[in-house]
Design a protein that fits this description.
heterodimer, A: alpha/beta, 7-stranded mixed β-sheet, two-stranded parallel ribbon, 14 helices, flat, B: 192 residues, two-stranded antiparallel ribbon
């Protein structure tokens, strides 16, 4: 027993030292370069592991690798292009119905049966290589002893060294947030208060980011950073997006009031600077929501609002339809594209598969989180454009920058059935092709 | 977790389907995964509502679903599912004269037959004027008036009906589509 005490003492001291060693620079926004070295070492090891697996696979040719990034090839353009191609083999019957038109719908239907574009966006991206986390490789089978040893070491490092460290950091970060904002809340309104409040928020998020071993690369910081009185809009992959963005600037958060621990957090945050928290009943009333957001922006001194218009987490390979609510409020929109590097850990939160707690466990036992954040030039709604079109415009800019697929599907589809109006849209498009021109022709 | 060859044994009629349809083992596994995904209640077979959910966007979704079920059947098991999908495999290149071998599901003829049966719902071998009107109504919905519909159907029949019997038989259908690249327009290609 005494031996244990002897050992535990120094270990504890070492541990506290490490924690302080990480927390202090984080508070000042400095980096000691440790994370960079860590990431580089990690990359080397993972590359080695990948090569090893590829060699192993070559020796066992009967094991095909199945990727979930779409199983069928979807070529072909819009309905008009496809119809035109189906008909241009018969130039004399350019407009009007052709029997070959049915073939277009038939093929589209079969494609949907074999694979739909919505579901695959809500399961995690499968890696072509293996990052030594068994959870990301579903086709793992034994390749070599060395690989298994390295993997075992990896498990030890992740669960016994990294995890406790990260939990400690996260708790420190969050308690600091609560205490700090409470204290700042007692001060009278002044620019000093705002400055202090920003400091508290920033340091807390920086500590949390260290707690996830997050390496964030910000692009275009100087030119396009969101300004006060604007709305910042980004694609949503995980609740951690908030930490990632708040590391570099202060935002007013928007969300539902929760109870419990999260509720305490929300209440204390609102003391030091105005966030926009809604009661559940208020969220149903779209006008009330829009009014409050407008009110917030109108006061040009308030922090930019952070909104995720997809409304739900998507697996970071594509961007789903943006809900137009946030785009009706007015004001300048600052788009931000967030792209996670999948080699180090899957950041996507599959809310139907994992609860928040198990998601956090998984993230804290991944290697690291490496993110690229691009600040894009501000955009505003143009004349003659309605909110939905504006939303689509912003969405394609974000998708383009992040290298994500721009999909027209609604993220809510993963929960419910497709609305009938989508079928009507197809019918409208088709009738434009056949009848639309017929009205012009005289026959 | 073993290699895919041993997993093929989990697929019902796996080996037989391999030979009959020409799908590769990897594709069959993929389709089986998809089948199990669509089979939300884990029944081991699909009912029409399971497939309709995927096709709610498609104007002729009901007909496509109908193509999976034999008349009177209400459930489709995995082998039948795959046999229907086999029509949409890309055609093989450089095939020798098919007269000797049994006709593959993805031959040009069979693909055309599949498309024909989408129109010819009562399977009497002809697309009557009524059937054509029905299909057009589905594809156009409420976007056109009854008169416009009638005139479109009239033109459609006149174009294709060569023997003037006021219906389109399979040969006339085939002739009407003879210049269309059916392999490209009626095939679903798997990514490798």
């Amino acid at each position: 027993m005494e031996n244990l005490g002897c050992v535990a003492g120094p270990i504890f001291q070492l541990w506290m030292f490490m924690v302080v060693f990480i927390v202090l620079p984080a508070m000042f926004g400095l980096s000691l370069g440790v994370t960079e070295v860590y990431i580089q070492v990690l990359v080397k090891i993972l590359e080695w592991a990948t090569l090893r697996i590829q060699r192993g696979r070559q020796e066992q040719p009967s094991a095909p690798v199945l990727l979930h990034t779409g199983i069928i090839e979807r070529v072909g353009g819009s309905m008009e292009e496809e119809m035109w191609q189906l008909r241009c083999s018969r130039p004399e019957a350019v407009v009007a119905f052709c029997l070959s038109d049915g073939v277009y719908f038939c093929k589209k239907g079969l494609e949907s049966i074999v694979e739909d574009q919505v579901t695959q966006r809500f399961s995690s991206e499968e890696l072509a290589s293996w990052n030594l986390l068994t959870r990301t490789n579903q086709n793992f089978h034994y390749i070599s002893l060395r690989l298994t040893i390295i993997w075992g070491l990896g498990v030890f490092v992740r669960y016994c060294i990294l995890l406790p460290l990260r939990i400690a950091l996260a708790s420190i970060g969050l308690s600091w947030l609560v205490i700090g904002t409470c204290v700042v809340g007692f001060l009278p309104e002044s620019s000093a208060k705002n400055w202090l409040s920003e400091l508290v928020h920033l340091t807390c998020y920086r500590i949390c980011a260290r707690g996830l071993s997050a390496t964030i690369h910000y692009h275009n910081k100087r030119e396009n950073r969101p300004q006060k009185g604007g709305i910042c809009v980004a694609n949503h992959t995980t609740p951690i997006d908030v930490v990632i963005l708040a590391n570099d600037g202060c935002y007013a958060m928007v969300g539902q009031t929760h109870g419990g621990l999260l509720g305490i957090l929300q209440k204390s945050m609102v003391r030091s600077c105005p966030h926009v928290w809604f009661e559940r009943s208020e969220m149903k009333d779209r006008n009330a929501v829009t009014r409050r957001l407008r009110h917030h922006i109108a006061a040009k001194t308030k922090l930019p609002i952070l909104i995720f218009p997809e409304g739900t987490c998507v697996n970071n390979t594509s961007v789903m339809m943006f809900k137009k609510g946030s785009f009706e409020v007015g004001g300048t929109i600052y788009p931000v594209a967030i792209k996670y590097d999948h080699r180090f850990g899957d950041a996507f939160w599959n809310s139907s598969k994992y609860s928040m707690l198990s998601y956090l466990m998984r993230t804290m036992t991944s290697w690291a989180i490496v993110v690229n954040v691009w600040y894009l030039p501000p955009m505003s709604i143009q004349d003659g454009e309605d909110a939905a079109q504006f939303a689509n415009r912003v969405k394609s800019v974000i998708a383009h920058q992040g290298g994500l697929l721009d999909l027209a599907w609604d993220g809510e589809l993963k929960r419910g059935k497709v609305k009938d109006s989508l079928k009507e849209e197809q019918q409208k498009m088709y009738s434009n092709i056949i009848v639309g021109q017929n009205n012009i022709r005289t026959k | 977790m073993g290699s895919s060859r041993s997993s093929l044994s989990l697929v019902p009629d796996g080996q037989q389907l391999l030979q009959e349809t020409g799908f590769s083992a990897a594709h069959l596994l993929r389709l089986h995964e998809r089948f199990r995904f669509l089979d939300k209640h884990g029944r081991g077979h699909l009912r029409s509502e399971d497939l309709e959910a995927e096709l709610s966007l498609n104007p002729i979704g009901d007909r496509i679903v109908g193509a999976f079920f034999q008349p009177g059947q209400e459930a489709v098991d995995f082998p039948s599912f795959v046999r229907v999908l086999a029509h949409f495999r890309p055609m093989e290149k450089n095939r020798t004269c098919a007269a000797v071998q049994p006709e593959r599901a993805n031959s040009r003829n069979r693909k055309l037959k599949f498309a024909f049966q989408l129109y010819d719902r009562d399977r009497d071998g002809k697309i009557s004027r009524t059937e054509l009107l029905q299909v057009l109504r589905e594809m156009l919905g409420l976007q056109v008036t009854e008169e416009q519909l009638q005139s479109i159907a009239e033109r459609g029949i006149q174009e294709a009906d060569l023997d003037r019997d006021d219906a389109i038989c399979f040969d006339e259908f085939r002739k009407s589509l003879e210049k269309v690249n059916i392999d490209q327009k009626m095939s679903v290609r798997f990514l490798e």
